[in-house]
Design a protein that fits this description.
single chain; alpha/beta; Rossmann fold; four-stranded parallel beta sheet; 4 strands; 39% helix
Length: 133
């Protein structure tokens, strides 16, 4: 029979001492300083998980203006462009890559290659009237 006045034995591995508590609290307080603001969506940057991954089809004339407006948004990132004119594709790809500071934007002559990609959330299409369906 157990002594009723005895206290339960504490497991030293499971107890949280003052030092362990202070370490955990300091780590929790310091954590935001180690995560970039862009990852948290702070400083008017949209977190990568909340960005709309876009492609543009028909990026000359009207598409040029549309692309420029979308590039001003922080919640959009272009990864693909398509136009039948190579010089338009190349110049707009350079514009997009300069904006984002990388070389992630790919160009296509055939828009169907863009439609086959599964990483694109939205497509802006600014083709001439005779291409509209």
């Amino acid at each position: 029979m157990a002594n009723q006045n005895s206290k339960p034995i504490k497991d030293p591995d499971k107890s949280l001492g003052r030092r362990a508590f202070l370490k955990a609290a300091a780590g929790a307080v310091a954590l935001p300083y180690f995560i970039p603001a862009a990852a948290m969506g702070k400083d008017s940057n949209t977190a990568p998980s909340n960005r709309i991954v876009m492609a543009g089809i028909g990026i000359g004339n009207m598409g040029n203006g549309d692309l420029g407006q979308f590039l001003k948004r922080g919640d959009v990132q272009y990864v693909a462009l398509s136009d039948v004119k190579k010089n338009v594709r190349d110049s707009q790809m350079a514009r997009v890559n300069q904006k984002y500071g990388n070389k992630d934007c790919k160009t296509y002559n055939d828009f169907r290659e863009i439609m086959a990609r599964n990483d694109i959330d939205a497509v802006h299409c600014a083709t001439p009237d005779h291409w509209h369906a």
